[in-house]
Each structure stands twice: as C-alpha cells, then as structure tokens.
Design goal:
Layout: E1 2-4, E2 11-13, H1 16-33, E3 35-39, E4 43-48, E5 51-56, H2 61-81, H3 83-101, H4 117-127, E6 130-137, E7 144-149, E8 157-158, E9 167-171, E10 183-187, H5 188-202, H6 209-222, H7 225-235, H8 239-288, H9 291-299
Antiparallel strand pairs: 1-2, 3-4, 4-5, 6-7, 8-9, 9-10
Helix pairs in contact: 2-6, 3-4, 5-8, 6-7, 6-8, 7-8
Length: 305
C-alpha cells in the first residue's frame, strides 16, 4: 500500500503497522463511495471523497508504470510548460546573459542557448550545477575528480557489476587516448543516488503516457528491472546514446530496484520480529505454562501424521 504525494507525485510505502486498518477502510470507501474514472486489466483509478484512489492487482509493469512513474513525469512536463515558469526561466536567463557580457557570469551555469535554453535554466534552478562532490582518482592517469557536473552527465554510463548493484563510470577528461576503461568509478548506494539525480535532471521536461509505457515495455522485454539495468551496463552505452525512451526506462528500473530493496528490508524485519515472538512463545509454552494446561491445549490439536 502506498500514499501518493500531492506535491511531487512520488509513491511512498505506508508503514506496515498501519496497512491492515487502512486497506480495510479504503476498500469500504472504494466499494461504497468510489466512482470509477479509468481502468485497465489490473489497475483502476477511482474518485473518492477527498482525492483519488489507485487500486492495483496483478499488474504488468507497463500497466502500473504510468500510475507509479508517469504521474511524476507528466507533472514535470506540465510544470515545464507553465507560462509563469517559462517567463521566470527566460528572465533568469536574460540576467545571466547580461552578467556574462559584463564579465560577472556564474561559471557553474551552463546554458545551451542554441538548443534548449529554458530546460537548462530550469535544471540549474532546481538541481544546481553538480550531481556529486567528493574525491575519486583515475586509475590510469592519476587525475582527481572532485565534482560531477550535470551538464556533462550525459556521458556517464553504467558498468557491469557482480553484485547487481549500480556502478557508474565517469569518463576521465585527461586520459588521451581515451578508452571505456579509463573512468572514475562510483559504486553501490553512492552511484545509485547520483544516477537517480542525473536522470531526474535530464528528464526535467517530463514524458508522455505513451513514452512511459513504451519505456516500461523495454524493461519487460529484458525480463526485469535488474536484467534491463544489467543489459545496459554490458553495452556500456552513455546516457546520451541510450536515447530518451531507454533512459526513461533506466530511471524506472533504478526506482524499481530501490523500492524492491526497501520491500526486502521490510520482509527481513518481519522475519526478525517473527523469530523473536516465536522464541518468546516457546518460553511461555514450555517453561511458564503448567504441564496440565499445556497437555490440555495439545489435546485440541489435530493428530500428527
């Protein structure tokens, strides 16, 4: 069970201890007061008092992707196309252009005036100029990477990983001649966090419903989100060469992996609690319960075969 943020449209898992009562309450609301707005084979959107309810059964990723990720991408698209946002963006760009002419430009601001200046301006205002800060050394030339700029992040690419976690390669600009092995490497949680920020930065203009569903089908064609990510890593294609549809698929796949890991942690927590409760129950049954009461309780159990 998830709650969907009205502001950013992200799906947030409801704490497990609250789900039982909430699911029952929502089922009653959906049955008694819900109005069906749209539905596919496994996903239904209902209008209920105070908001909307998305009910998901056994859904393919392509069916659920629009509800889970498409709303956020559509929100980005609508936000990008708002007249007020465009006016503010161009005003910001005009000031940047004037200060550049006066020699007072912000060197961290990279705007492609001939391509999509508004998108670059909005990216800078929302994300800043760097996706990562730290210190990584190139294993070939010894140069040091201290920050990964967003405006060159299209040239990063996934690297194969034995543990199926994200490894991100950042091409070294000083290695000459350059080969795909000459990269700064970000790994595990750090790489995953950086990749998610980069993809959100690049996809600030959002995507259509058809684009999201096509991207989800790319993942299903690979077999799973993890297999799609592994296939992209084996190809060592930069985000630029992936193209828009596959880069959106990669954003969906990375988010799927994060959510799957959270669910796995939750399952492990359930198992831990169960083992603890089982141990306490055994102590109560075997050591604190008088034998005659224990024998009487066992008499009600079905005979073992």
């Amino acid at each position: 069970m998830w709650s969907i943020c009205d502001h950013c449209a992200r799906w947030n898992l409801v704490p497990s201890e609250d789900r039982g009562a909430q699911v029952g309450r929502l089922e009653r609301i959906a049955r008694d007061r819900g109005k069906l707005l749209s539905a596919t084979e496994n996903v239904a959107l209902l209008e209920v008092p105070g908001g909307e309810l998305v009910r998901i059964g056994r859904a393919h990723l392509a069916e659920a992707a629009w509800w889970r990720y498409g709303k956020e991408l559509q929100s980005r698209r609508n936000n990008y196309e708002r007249p007020g946002k465009r006016i503010a963006g161009y005003a910001f760009g005009a000031v940047a252009l004037i200060t550049d002419g006066l020699g007072l430009a912000d060197l961290s601001l990279g705007i492609g005036w001939g391509d999509s200046p508004l998108a670059d301006i909005l990216r800078y205002r929302h994300f800043g100029w760097a996706a990562w800060y730290g210190r990584k050394d190139c294993p070939f030339c010894g140069s040091t990477l201290r920050a990964l700029r967003y405006d060159v992040s299209w040239w990063t690419f996934l690297l194969p990983s034995e543990d199926n976690r994200v490894r991100l390669g950042v091409p070294c600009p000083r290695c000459d001649p350059w080969t795909p092995e000459k990269v700064f490497q970000l790994e595990a949680d750090e790489a995953e966090s950086v990749l998610r920020r980069i993809l959100a930065y690049q996809h600030i203009t959002g995507a259509s419903e058809d684009m999201v569903k096509d991207a989800a089908r790319e993942i299903e064609g690979a077999g799973s989100a993890a297999e799609f990510r592994a296939r992209v890593a084996d190809q060592r294609m930069t985000l630029w060469r992936l193209g828009r549809e596959r880069s959106i698929a990669l954003e969906i796949a990375v988010n799927e992996a994060v959510e799957a890991r959270l669910l796995s942690l939750e399952a492990s927590a359930f198992e831990f609690v169960w083992r603890r409760e089982e141990a306490l129950a055994r102590i109560i049954d075997e050591e604190l319960t008088p034998p005659r009461f224990l024998d009487r309780a066992k008499s009600y159990l079905p005979p073992q075969r």
